[in-house]
Amino acid sequence: MKRITIPLLALILAGCTHEKNALIEQGNYKIDRGNYTVDTRITSANANERIRFLVMHYTAVDDKESLRLLTQPDGGASAHYLIPSVPAVDGGKPVVLGLVPERRRAWHAGVSHWAQRDNLNDTSIGIEIVNLGFTEGLTGKHWYPYTPEQIELVARMAQDIATRYGISPDNILAHSDIAPQRKHDPGPLFPWEMLAKRGIGAWPSKEAVVKYLAGRDPAATASVKVIQTALAKYGYQIPQNGELDEETRKVLIAFQMHFRPSDISGSADAQTEALALALVEKYRQ
Q1: Which residues form the N-acetylmuramoyl-L-alanine amidase domain (predicted)?
Q2: What CATH code would you report for 53-197?
Q3: For a FRET experiment, which of 110, 171, 203, 223 has its CA 20 to 30 Å from that of 80?
Q4: What is the pLDDT of residues 190-201, one digit of tens each?
Q5: Which pTM does this prediction carry?
């Protein structure tokens, strides 16, 4: 290792100081913080984006109440963006309401977990969509659909945000994915498969699902332990006890709402197992 003499080191440092001062004087790298100045000429390579996840929600109330809950102190919640029931159009482009700057922490995820990370408010951007969610009836839950205009705006936003922050498909999530014990949004009518075809969000390959079904009836009973292990590896917080308890069933419902919305019974069946294993193969190897 070469040794640098004190006079030479002093000369180098003096040169660096002179160069920094010149750059600061030019204003190229200067940030004025009032009573001190930041020189940003040298940046570290040892960093990454704070934003790792994009989370989709529905508001469960109408436009007026959605805006109030997400902006007023008594609402107790916030999101970075709110998509109205009928997005306005400005210059031929749909308009989303930006409620919290992306650099700031919005209160949209609450108690949450995904892929070994907790408290996703710290590392995510939240998109709320005005949608009534569901109502309970004699035949169960009635879910309210999204409009094509809302979904088109979601797609444009998700593509942009994922590109800017390098968010991987498996980290574009439902609120129910990260908080399955207490949340249902954005529900089974949110078109995850259609969005995945546009490169937005994760989706298992059909070939892998067929492989893991291995000729079984999709409705056949499967191993709860295998499903629990696969879903935990994929990112869900789920018990590892081999039992179809209430906590596990809620996670299965959340998973099925995302990847098999035609049947969200929470059953531990062969198709659910195959979907989970196919996702692990695609995104967790």
Answers
A1: 39-187
A2: 3.40.80.10
A3: 203
A4: 999 999 999 999
A5: 0.87
